[in-house]
Amino acid sequence: MSQWMYATGGEQQGPVTDAELRRLAADGSLKPADLIWREGLKDWVPAGRVKGLFPAQASAPAAPAAFRGTPSPPGFSGGEGRGEGDCGVPLTRPSATLSPHGGERDALLIGVPQNAATPAAAPQPAAPSGPPAPAPKMSVMAIMSILCGVLSVLMALAGGLCCTLGGIPAALVAVTGIVLGLVARKRIARSAGTLGHGGMAIAGLIVGIIALVLSIIVIIMMFLQAGVVMSQWEKIKSGMPSSPTPPSPPSQKVQVQPSPPPQPPPSQKVQVQPSTPPQPPVDDEAKLRKIAAGWQPAGGPIVDLLPTMEGDRRAAKEGDVWVLRSAGIATKQKFPVPADFRFVAKTDSNNIRFGYNADEMIFNWEMNRDEFRIWGGPASMKNKPGAGRVPVNEWVGIELIVWPDEMIVYVDGAERYRTKADFSKVNEPLKIFSMGSTVKVKSVEMTRPAAR
Length: 452
Hints:
By secondary structure, the chain is of the alpha+beta class.
């Protein structure tokens, strides 16, 4: 039984038997133009030249005259009624049919006897040309890589121009593009030519790396800008000028010759104005008694907080008095509202600062001593002009009463400040501090305010 090879669609198939070849021709899987070959043939021949293989050729006449009269190749005997194909192989005999049993009748199918000698110079059977190589598929990862790279560059540039947080998402997108580019290159290398766009993957890698560098630069710029802003904010909060003040040049003593006073007319008497006597020194004990008498009525027991308060590294104690030179102290525990805090302090110049329901409340603010300042909290920036000045180098009693909906500040028993706000969620420690001055704190107490 013969074994046939056939080629359809540019691909070599087989081997198949005579019966299978006949079935392929019958169901249309094998076309007359498809090439077939078996052992003993010099070359591949079209299947349509095989007599009786296709049903429409069962009663067909002998090969057309166009194929007649051509010389037979060496080693083959001619015969009347026989033609030759383009490859020089005799096509049919008049009585040839395809036999399922092979043998001589199979050889007669294409005019080649089984015992025929093969020409010495016959070429080797040539395999059919394969189908054209398919176009490489598009690598989605390569395209996504370059898209991520371009997007991250745009985001980094926008973040750098606007000094925003755009550098962080730009860096994340750039890293994503780099990872996609690496994966795409690896898959393209392993695809044996079925995946394309390797150049696009390399471009995505390069653009992603550039975008990542730009993003890192933008992030560094953002943090530097944030540091400058925070520094300026701290200077504003502390009342320091935003730029350093150059030192004043050393003063030179200038000898000023006093001009002689005008002589009064002889007829008028000279009125001598008495000089103002100096103020007597403040009696600390008397002032402390006055402060104690000016506290508002307590609504509960009075707790001494000063012994339990903690100071920062610049705070110091002189006996029972805390000395704050640009330093601060704070309670360990937090206090919910309502609360009544009382403390006695004095400053050598300015800035008695304290906080509880606000970050800072300031007396003798160095920028405007007459204004009572509030920073942070529900009452932030509700400042009051004319309410911020307290005496210098003199003990002052400051009382802060905070209700869920209102806060009141007293100085030496007199009301200085009152405002409405939502203080119901306040639960903070009390802190007292100074800025650019020396503040001494003699006592700190806490109680519950009496009913309003």
